[in-house]
Hints:
Elements: E1 17-18, H1 20-30, E2 37-41, E3 44-47, H2 48-64, E4 72-75, H3 80-92, E5 96-99, E6 109-114, E7 117-122, E8 125-128, H4 129-138, E9 146-147, E10 151-155, E11 158-161, H5 162-165, E12 181-185, E13 188-192
Parallel strand pairs: 4-5, 4-6, 5-10
Antiparallel strand pairs: 1-9, 2-3, 6-7, 7-8, 10-11, 12-13
Helix pairs in contact: 1-2, 1-3, 2-3, 2-4
Amino acid sequence: MADVTWFRAPADGDPGTLNACYNALDIHVIRGRADDVALTLAGKERTFAWLLTEVAACAGVLRAFGVGIGDRVVLGSLPPEEGVLVALAVARVGAEAAYDDSPGAEGRVRLGSTDAGVVLTVDGEDVPWDVAMRAGRTDPAPCADVPGDAVLARHRDDVLTVRAALGASDDQKVPVTAGATLVEVGGVGIWSFGAPEEQAG
């Protein structure tokens, strides 16, 4: 069993509660690894502290638009770094990342790339990435208390649960869906649809 920090440990059919983002970022900062490199993409090294700041800001924006536990956030094409940040932010608020060709991948909140850059779309209204992130930095989101059997991400017919992403399921291998790269951040496996395999870490 992987080293997982639970908010409430599972017992007697209770799946327990935890948060994938907390296990990927927060716990490492708490344990004194804030300045350690958590991720390298496209030659850029990002520390646990930097990622935590950016992810909490993005999660703050999602929370401000009413995204919470069990809600669906549709993710379209995103640059690799933003894709990782958004996936972790969605996990932070306890929502599900539905990649845009998932069956029924509809939701009131969507993130994707346009000619103008990364855009957050809420109820049909677009908010540019830099504007959203500035707003999120004013009220970053804490980690939601998520059931251990919750869905973290969905793509086509493939599902990644929180427990599987943490390596805490019966099958220790994190499933990877078609077209995705498995990116590991702080021991947590997440899907990325733009991160080159040799640079994800």
